Amino acid sequence: EQGASNQIVLLTNEFHLWRAKMLAQRYGLDAAGLPASTPNQQFLKPNYYLREYFSMVIFWLESAGLNLDTSAIPL
Fold it and tell me: I need a labelling partner for 29 at 20 to 30 A (CA). Which of 1, 42, 43, 71 fits?
């Protein structure tokens, strides 16, 4: 812990970077983001963004104090 920093770099897909940075902030980390490109397959990319949207909704609800059991949701 001596001399340790709470600064990190997150490397993840561009659609996931915003939530990953918010999660890092929640745990007291100073995170910079480095987006990786998502394969440009027409049927996959919209699915990824849709899943991330619902993950953000769950994140915000949990941040507001709701205790959600999301174990049955395949996110």
Answer: 71
